[in-house]
Amino acid sequence: VSKNKLGEQGKVVRNKARLVTEGYNQYEGIDFIEKFASIAKLRAIKIMLAFAAHKSIKHFQMDVRVLF
Known about the structure:
Residues 3-66 form the Reverse transcriptase Ty1/copia-type domain. It holds the Pfam family RVT_2. With 68 residues, the protein is α+β, with helices and mostly antiparallel strands. Helices cover 19% and strands 16% of the residues. It has one domain (2-54). It is built from one helix and two strands; from the N terminus they run E-E-H. It is elongated and about 55 Å long.
């Protein structure tokens, strides 16, 4: 999900982005026993890093232990 923060004059001041996964999709009789971690696909990460490099955007890596 990406969003642009606009300044007083309507110009883009900052770009905001976050990666959202759908880890809640489980089907009865199939997924209830298995456990897995929601992770981004390598292709998506490469695209985001290429975009950040192209736009000279600072980026940071974080490890989120507890989401809820």
